[in-house]
Known about the structure:
The protein is an alpha+beta fold and 181 residues long. It is built from 2 helices and 9 strands. It has an 8-stranded antiparallel β-barrel with strand order 1-3-4-5-6-7-8-9. It is elongated and about 50 Å long. Pfam families: YceI (PF04264).
Amino acid sequence: MISSKIRLLVYFTISWISIGISYSQVWHPVSSNITFKIKMLGAEVVGKLSGFQGAIHFDPEHLAQSSIYGSVETNTIDTDNSLRNRHLKEKEGFFEVIKYPTISMKSLKIEANGESFVGTFALTMKGVTKNIRLPFSFINEGENAIFKGSTIINRRDWQVGGGTIGMSEDVEVSIVLNVKK
Length: 181
């Protein structure tokens, strides 16, 4: 027979867990625009990735209970140049899409930054996981919302591009997610 103290403890534990979970709002991805920019021999190369899938639990009033996870398919990389796309997808030292089919991000912490936010994310690419900081805005329009963020990463941290001559180490990554409740 369970004692009344244990029942009370279980009741309060479940209640607190339920309260914590109820703070986060669930958002479902509707569309995404994930782009990157990098300099190659001084010229800017722009590309995009698609196939975004994610799980978004976000409430700006309860950031400690919020979490964001997303992934894209590496075989969707598109730079508007079929030869370059094939090179990026297939060549060792680049994305190797058969071996590494996805790039994923998982929030570790989300903080307020004035009217916007900064997320610390574990970014996994080519089997390498490193933490990044991603400043982003959240525009809530009732049942719909938009997340917009941009950051610069060092491609070498994920072993992308190797020692390619003339390729910048810095890659600007921009993410726009349209979501609905």
